[in-house]
């Protein structure tokens, strides 16, 4: 049973193991943006919990997935109530300033909690008034310390290192100036069968004040273009290419590189084949119509011969992971990798092209989402817009890191791999968006990408 910081006396609220509490949480989770199992029938069970005094971190087993749900009992519903039970409010602790302070104290080592370890390289300011980000997010991020830091609560928890802590930590130590530096983190331990495993729960980073979301900047420009307005200069995709190349250079310096062996290449092809099979199974309802084309594309994967240099990459690079700082420079966020990829696969060295195609897919998404909003707009104009951004980005990347060979089978294979992943992501999270990556898959398996004809 829990008590609040303002009222430390025991309460009459039900205990966490009470069926009514889990039932309430199970009903609430699918209403959140971060819940990754929407539309699936899964039983929810309490795996373990950590007592923060005025709040509690729950690790809930939902099918094969372990979910982090910090909660608190309060007298008032606050801004994110889960349920009223026996006269008290069970609330989402991520929206509760006292509970967020407790999480921060664990990260900085000021509060010791059985089963949790904090690790801080700086001394973040007290939480104060907090603000929870409301956006397209797989996790939950909270801005605190008078807008000086942002704490990310990892919603899906896995045994092993989370690259958002380890990779951002390595880039921070290397002094990379294209990322917000990592300030602190929390690791948890829990029993798993006969073993005892650990995994990251939280990362606290510098907050990029006045940062503008690259996704919104590019999407708004695409929208204005499709509306036939004079949109002005597009956001600087060339500088974005340079920024990505800089982070790749810093990652290589901080975490090393390796020349791909034949075994690496084979593993890479097998990985792509397995991901394609996974996507075709997970999104059978929408990918079924492309059965023959996907089969032929799977056969073409065997054309991949040389992977070149491998290194730690971002792993899920898209415009939503980029901010334009107050000084106009681009900053890359969220090194967690793809949320649908098992954690142990996310710190495997990869070709840098995977990040490059992630960004190219994102320009396509920006135009695709603009077309969804303006269904009568000119599809060819949207295509031109994408090709311009793509050319600018690749030119900037090439300037800092050397040219990208778009005819390389690795490039084509990774583009298709990303689009297939996106189809599964949208089926699970945003079914009304699925047409955007599905059209990309269709185009990639029916005709290779080629630029629009030059206008005389
Ligand atoms: N360091 C930061 N400074 C400012 N805003 C940030 C920072 N980190 C994240 N954000 C904002 O929060 C959003 C979600 O963060 P992100 O790390 O991508 O979460 P998720 O892994 O859940 O997708 C970003 O798109 C950005 O708008
Ligand atoms: O940012 P996350 O790590 O949570 O990434 C996941 O969610 C993204 C959406 O929020 C998803 O990205 C896809 O949609 C974006 C527009 O919202 C678009 O810019 C990306 O290109 C597209 O892949 C990402 O794939 C998923 O892993």
Automatic annotation (TrEMBL):
GO molecular function terms attached to this record: ATP binding; kinase activity
Catalyses which reaction(s): D-maltose + ATP = alpha-maltose 1-phosphate + ADP + H(+)
Domain of life assignment: Bacteria
GO biological process: glycogen biosynthetic process
Keywords tagged on the record: ATP-binding, Carbohydrate metabolism, Glycogen biosynthesis, Glycogen metabolism, Kinase, Nucleotide-binding, Transferase
Pathway membership: Glycan biosynthesis; glycogen biosynthesis
SUPFAM superfamilies: Protein kinase-like (PK-like)
InterPro entries listed in its UniProt record: Aminoglycoside_PTrfase, Kinase-like_dom_sf, Mak_N_cap
Keyword Transport: no
Domain (Maltokinase N-terminal cap) ranges: 28-96
Residue intervals of the Aminoglycoside phosphotransferase domain: 198-393
EC number: 2.7.1.175
Family per record: Belongs to the aminoglycoside phosphotransferase family.
Quaternary context: Monomer.
Protein name as it appears in the record: Maltokinase
Source organism (scientific name): Agrococcus jenensis
